[in-house]
């Protein structure tokens, strides 16, 4: 950039180019816009000449051209307006969040196009990925349903390994338990460098008795115990850097393929547990139903869930953005998933597939045309695994934490009021030791 006019005049042309500062980003944009405007003016001139030359055309042709051109221009303008509107809405949301978080500070929003160069903010995703791959993560899944519905087989099919309680117990014998007992089996699964500690909680004995009154209570107790364990770890003075997470992230509830409606035990269970854990209902052994029976059964189940006020995962009120709402709406239309499980492979057109062999053919487990196992697997593992953990932590565990802390505050206030008239130091020390 020149200091004075004389120095600029006396400077040779090559040196003047060197002294001239490079154009800024806004100037480049202005130059581009001026070039574009110039091109548009040239195009308009050409169009005008073209219209004057072709004055002999019929009125019908002229009307069609005049009608088509404004439509194209309107579409381009509409697309530009929509993009600008989205950018302005995003900027307004970010500015609002910044103001709410720090109202006393001046805040602003800088787009990627306004940066002078590459900063490297996107590299934080790679950092998070590397850290997660090193540390691994936990996923705890509970399977609930009466005996003989294929709970263990489905879990083995989901993770393509022997992870169920039956598969891990040597000399296992199928016995109907007199009471509902909970058994947990943990495995560390590694795939492409990513480690996941999988814990499968089985509930043998559920729904197998003549009198199934309060058969859900041991399950509710177990889920709350895991919340309590995590809460106590959080409240410790010297907390662990990483608190072990044994909370139930998902509960797969198996419905028998009766083709009728939900049973009273199904409604009562999902009513009580839907408030403390994410429930995903599935129709077990769906290959025993025809396609029409399956569809009618699913519609009846959805009506029963709605009429009884039962909310299963994914809940509509937890959708965070329109894209997520569209995806979850498709999932909600498919719930409950009609699934078939197996751990045996068969040859189909020269390829090995997981399936159940019958006299009339092979039911392919991962074929969407045969059953909805692939949709269930995608929901639990490939698309919503992290969301299941987030809902567990931010919704269900948070509700339990608030309730427990409110209870402890009430107990503390009662304890303080009861000890207030006492002036003896010994009584005060005893009260503090109880706290």
How does this structure look, described?
The protein is of the alpha/beta class and 435 residues long. The protein has a domain at 136-169 and 176-235 and 242-409: P-loop containing nucleotide triphosphate hydrolases (Rossmann fold, 3-Layer(aba) Sandwich), CATH 3.40.50. The protein is 52% helix and 13% strand. The chain has 14 helices and nine strands. It has helices at residues 5-10, 13-19, 25-53, 59-101, 123-135, 151-159, 165-168, 217-235, 264-273, 291-307, 322-334, 373-383, 385-419, 425-434, and strands spanning 137-144, 183-191, 194-202, 250-255, 279-283, 337-338, 345-348, 351-358, 361-364. The chain has a six-stranded mixed β-sheet with strand order 2-3-1-4-5-6, sandwiched between helices. The chain has a three-stranded antiparallel β-sheet with strand order 7-8-9, with no helix packed on it. A hairpin with a 2-residue loop joins strand 2 (183-191) and strand 3. The chain is globular. It starts with a helix and ends with a helix. Mean pLDDT is 77; it is low at 1-11, 14-22, 24-30, 32-73 and 419-435. Residues 135-407 form the Septin-type G domain. Residues 43-73 have a biased composition (Basic and acidic residues). Keywords: Cell cycle, Cell division, Cytoplasm, Cytoskeleton, GTP-binding, Nucleotide-binding.
């Amino acid at each position: 950039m020149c200091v004075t006019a004389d120095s600029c005049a006396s400077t040779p042309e090559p040196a003047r180019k060197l002294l001239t500062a490079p154009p800024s980003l806004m100037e480049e944009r202005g130059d581009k816009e001026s070039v574009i405007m110039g091109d548009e003016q040239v195009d308009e001139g050409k169009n005008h000449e073209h219209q004057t030359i072709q004055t002999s055309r019929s009125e019908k042709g002229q009307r069609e051209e005049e009608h088509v051109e404004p439509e194209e221009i309107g579409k381009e303008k509409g697309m530009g307006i929509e993009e600008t509107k989205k950018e302005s809405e995003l900027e307004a949301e970010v500015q609002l969040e910044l103001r709410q978080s720090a109202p006393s500070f001046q805040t602003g929003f800088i787009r990627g196009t306004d940066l002078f160069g590459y900063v490297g903010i996107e590299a934080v995703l790679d950092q998070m990925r590397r850290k997660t791959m090193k540390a691994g993560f936990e996923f705890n899944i509970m399977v609930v349903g009466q005996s003989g519905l294929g709970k263990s087989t489905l879990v083995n099919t989901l993770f393509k390994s022997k992870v169920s309680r039956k598969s891990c117990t040597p000399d296992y014998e199928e016995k109907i338990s007199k009471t509902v007992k909970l058994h947990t089996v943990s495995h560390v699964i590694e795939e492409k460098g990513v480690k996941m500690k999988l814990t499968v909680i089985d509930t043998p004995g559920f729904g197998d008795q003549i009198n199934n009154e309060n058969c859900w209570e041991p399950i509710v107790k177990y889920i709350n115990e895991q919340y309590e364990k995590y809460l106590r770890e959080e409240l410790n003075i010297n907390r662990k850097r990483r608190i072990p997470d044994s909370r139930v992230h998902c509960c797969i509830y198996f419905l028998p393929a009766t083709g009728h409606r939900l049973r009273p035990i199904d409604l009562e269970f999902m009513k009580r547990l839907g408030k403390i854990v994410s429930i995903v209902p599935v129709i077990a052994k769906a290959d025993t139903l025809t396609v029409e029976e399956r569809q009618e059964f699913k519609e009846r189940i959805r009506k029963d869930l709605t009429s009884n006020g039962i909310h299963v995962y994914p809940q509509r009120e937890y959708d965070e953005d329109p894209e997520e709402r569209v995806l979850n709406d498709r999932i909600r239309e498919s719930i409950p998933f009609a699934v078939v499980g197996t751990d045996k492979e068969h040859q189909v057109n020269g390829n090995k597939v997981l399936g159940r062999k019958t006299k009339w053919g092979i039911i392919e487990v991962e074929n969407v045309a045969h059953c909805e196992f692939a949709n269930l697997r995608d929901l639990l593992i490939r698309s919503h695994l992290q969301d299941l953990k987030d809902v567990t932590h931010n919704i269900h565990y948070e509700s339990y934490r608030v309730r427990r802390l409110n209870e402890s505050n009430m107990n503390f206030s009662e304890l303080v009021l009861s000890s207030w008239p006492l002036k003896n130091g010994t009584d005060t020390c005893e009260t503090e030791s109880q706290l």
